[in-house]
Amino acid sequence: MAAFDYPTIADFVGNTPLVRLQRLPGQTSNTILAKLEGNNPAGSVKDRPALSMIQQAQARGDIRPGDTLIEATSGNTGIALAMAAAIMGYRMKLIMPDHMSAERKASMAAFGAELILVSQEEGMEGARDLADAMQARGEGLVLNQFGNLDNPRAHYEGTGPEIWAQTQGQVTHFVSSMGTTGTIMGVSRYLKEQNPDVQIVGLQPEDGAQIPGIRRWPEAYLPSIFERQRVDQIIDIPQQAAEDTMRRLASEEGIFCGVSSGGSVWAALELSRQLENAVIVAIICDRGDRYLSTGVFASR
């Protein structure tokens, strides 16, 4: 009898559920759908580009198992890269601001990554600068999720086609918070190729808001993979609205997610008030369990 080719954990990245919101939309002719990226093995949408960046770099011969990889991260990418490095046999050094949640730090360490912290004041800009300095000293290769085309490629080849198929080509609006912008770039490219009328809506924190995983980038640090023309509309997310919607998703829809996902659904609900007969897809970036220590679910 021939041996059965069992799948590995890497085979379960992607193909995440798309579910309809039942209560938050209220009475409406629109359909609001949530793409549950927390169902990926390491718990976030970042599993897709993390695996893609390492696989493609290895296929090109840029790296080989046993090499050291470096990346600046605010959390989810770091966890995903730590998982992908463990799967494929690489050492991983991750640099992140020290105010990120304890669950995120512990998850990276559990996958075997070395964690290097910078101050909250230095932020992601400081983390990115340190990653570049470490690479210049020969301490490893920076994958550079902010400029690596294998990041949006993962969403062009995976997330976008999944949404198109799951909505049977009926999607009218795609809503995504923006961090590296890889998700929105890859999905926009794919969906616009299928139907140029699909509206792509990007989200960023309003001035003063601190929402994990997304940023209002200073011009000098704007991800080089970002192409402004691929986004039809950008909406600023208020901190309180994102947190309130996140808690309502858990208590009224049974969807346990993080703050940026709450912001994504808040924006989808705001859009819905202006539309009729629309099919709006919002990205649920991750799971809520990695934010419990912050107390955000207890704040009401």
UniProtKB/TrEMBL annotation:
<feature type="binding site">
    <location>
        <position position="76"/>
    </location>
    <ligand>
        <name>pyridoxal 5'-phosphate</name>
    </ligand>
</feature>
<dbReference type="InterPro" id="IPR036052">
    <property type="entry name" value="TrpB-like_PALP_sf"/>
</dbReference>
<dbReference type="Pfam" id="PF00291">
    <property type="entry name" value="PALP"/>
</dbReference>
<feature type="modified residue" description="N6-(pyridoxal phosphate)lysine">
    <location>
        <position position="46"/>
    </location>
</feature>
<feature type="domain" description="Tryptophan synthase beta chain-like PALP">
    <location>
        <begin position="10"/>
        <end position="286"/>
    </location>
</feature>
<dbReference type="GO" id="GO:0006535">
    <property type="term" value="P:cysteine biosynthetic process from serine"/>
</dbReference>
<comment type="pathway">
    <text>Amino-acid biosynthesis; L-cysteine biosynthesis; L-cysteine from L-serine: step 2/2.</text>
</comment>
<dbReference type="InterPro" id="IPR001926">
    <property type="entry name" value="TrpB-like_PALP"/>
</dbReference>
<dbReference type="InterPro" id="IPR005856">
    <property type="entry name" value="Cys_synth"/>
</dbReference>
<keyword id="KW-0808">Transferase</keyword>
<protein>
    <recommendedName>
        <fullName>Cysteine synthase</fullName>
        <ecNumber>2.5.1.47</ecNumber>
    </recommendedName>
</protein>
<dbReference type="GO" id="GO:0004124">
    <property type="term" value="F:cysteine synthase activity"/>
</dbReference>
<dbReference type="InterPro" id="IPR050214">
    <property type="entry name" value="Cys_Synth/Cystath_Beta-Synth"/>
</dbReference>
<dbReference type="InterPro" id="IPR005858">
    <property type="entry name" value="CysM"/>
</dbReference>
<dbReference type="InterPro" id="IPR001216">
    <property type="entry name" value="P-phosphate_BS"/>
</dbReference>
<feature type="binding site">
    <location>
        <position position="260"/>
    </location>
    <ligand>
        <name>pyridoxal 5'-phosphate</name>
    </ligand>
</feature>
<keyword id="KW-0663">Pyridoxal phosphate</keyword>
<keyword id="KW-0028">Amino-acid biosynthesis</keyword>
<keyword id="KW-0198">Cysteine biosynthesis</keyword>
<feature type="binding site">
    <location>
        <begin position="179"/>
        <end position="183"/>
    </location>
    <ligand>
        <name>pyridoxal 5'-phosphate</name>
    </ligand>
</feature>
<comment type="similarity">
    <text>Belongs to the cysteine synthase/cystathionine beta-synthase family.</text>
</comment>
